Amino acid sequence: MFFHILLLFLLSLSGFGGGLRGVTSLGINYGQIGNNLPSPDKVLDMLTALRITKVRIYDTNPEILSAFANSKVEIIVTVENEMLAQLMDPQQALQWVTSRIKPYVPATKITGIAVGNEVFTDDDLTLMETLVPAILSIHTALTQLGLDTTIKISTPSSLAVLQESYPPSAGSFKPEITQIMSQFLQFLSTTKSPFWINAYPYFAYKDNPDSIPLQYVLLNPNPGMMDPFTNLRYDNMLYAQADAVLFAMAKMGFGGIEVRISETGWPSKGDPDETGACVENAAEYNRNLLRRQMRNEGTPLRPNLRLEIYLFALFNEDMKPGPTSERNYGLFQPDGTMVYNVGLSSFNGFSSSSSSSSSSPSSPSSSSFSPSSISLTSSASTNSKGASMGYYQSLVYWMFVYLLTYQLFIRRPLYI
Prior knowledge:
- The chain is of the alpha/beta class and 416 residues long.
- It contains 12 helices and 15 strands.
- The protein has one domain (23-332): Glycosidases (TIM Barrel), CATH 3.20.20.80.
- α5 (90-100) packs across α6 (125-144).
- The radius of gyration is 25 Å and the shape is globular.
- The chain crosses the membrane at residues 391-410.
- One of its GO terms (molecular function) is glucan endo-1,3-beta-D-glucosidase activity.
- Its EC number is 3.2.1.39.
């Protein structure tokens, strides 16, 4: 029996019988507020090379939905806030789904619809009142068209929906949104859809750098903090924020809903008053985030449920309003060059074509994408893993030989 158990253990180490390992819980936000972004087909080449198979866009751009057809990329599309009032009408919602969603599926893998963005923290109370009716109308339309089982509906919220978030067990929603939030959570519970949260530890650090340890928000090794009511230890703010939302939902009677991070990131540049916005911190935050995603980590409250995260963002977007940081969240410049290396692979991005020397190298049209060198796994870790696999497979082989020999001698009759 011992040898059988040992053999099974070695087989599990060798990777036999298992599927391909990937960063299955990682997605990225693909914003388009720029006048110099690459075409959707080039973006698809980039995502394919990066092995990123989950993307969120902020509209239902037909060029993107068409370009992503017959690919492995799953897409969450967005209903713009200004359309919510119109889509409260079931007929208008049916027309919207029929024209904006149905023509592209199943070739394009639309897996989610974000109805609005940060509606609960918008100053427009009328807009907030349109949210749940619009969600219900869109869901009814999906059901009528037979799409409700493959497309989940939710709405991304900012952390400002919380009245309390520290410690995580104190998490609670603001009382003024309780009624609408309860209706929304009931919908999520009924349809088994996730609660999406836009969580940015950067904002907390920027507003209070003297009180919040930088290593804690950057997901670096640090002493962390312990929730005194649950004795759960948190070594980073992002997981604490996610669990605060879980506690807030549980207090309203909805403890079974999954939390997913619809946005998180760190700016590589900012204004003088935007403390912490720099390339070094952005690289550190996203590098640590990717490492944790490769381990499919869960939060301390739900350690066995991977935390799905959508990184913000794929590109720097030069037309976004607001402070400098708003235009500098991207991993890549619009020409495909890296803003910084996240440290887990050798990124080449878009490289200038030697045959187009007369063109500007920063122009997307004069660039070609080189996918062969892109991976979320570094060459060093890949080689190390390959060596480890060879070692364990050799162990499995000799253990198997030994086991067969052992069985033959045990079963062989003895003649005296």
